[in-house]
């Protein structure tokens, strides 16, 4: 027997008939929380939204583990000299931004456009941090011109999280 749920507050909420034992995917189960019901009332989950969020949570974990490993290398892998002081500082800058944006990726599933925000943050991290890591390890500044573009992409990624 179908029952009608009472209207919920807010313009995006709507009263929908729900059948507790139907097993239908279009109807919320009896135990569903307000967030789940709200998403269904608003037209369902965004295409790829829930899946993209899970992917970027995994990317954040892998990126964080890589940042810890590279931080350990940076702390113990540089020799003392004037040139190496600059390269070590460059490496530490890359590592700091790598850590920060790995943590930012954990917030991607909570934003409205997780695929956009996560892609921008990930690609910006690769371009910005990768260019600095490469120069710090090899001494070759060939990819340094990619760093400003990577930084700009990181800024746009943060803005995409706010959308």
Automatic annotation (TrEMBL):
<feature type="transmembrane region" description="Helical">
    <location>
        <begin position="142"/>
        <end position="161"/>
    </location>
</feature>
<feature type="compositionally biased region" description="Pro residues">
    <location>
        <begin position="1"/>
        <end position="10"/>
    </location>
</feature>
<feature type="transmembrane region" description="Helical">
    <location>
        <begin position="55"/>
        <end position="75"/>
    </location>
</feature>
<keyword id="KW-0812">Transmembrane</keyword>
<keyword id="KW-0472">Membrane</keyword>
<dbReference type="Pfam" id="PF04241">
    <property type="entry name" value="DUF423"/>
</dbReference>
<feature type="transmembrane region" description="Helical">
    <location>
        <begin position="115"/>
        <end position="136"/>
    </location>
</feature>
<dbReference type="GO" id="GO:0016020">
    <property type="term" value="C:membrane"/>
</dbReference>
<keyword id="KW-1133">Transmembrane helix</keyword>
<comment type="similarity">
    <text>Belongs to the TMEM256 family.</text>
</comment>
<dbReference type="InterPro" id="IPR006696">
    <property type="entry name" value="DUF423"/>
</dbReference>
<feature type="region of interest" description="Disordered">
    <location>
        <begin position="1"/>
        <end position="29"/>
    </location>
</feature>
<protein>
    <recommendedName>
        <fullName>Transmembrane protein 256</fullName>
    </recommendedName>
</protein>
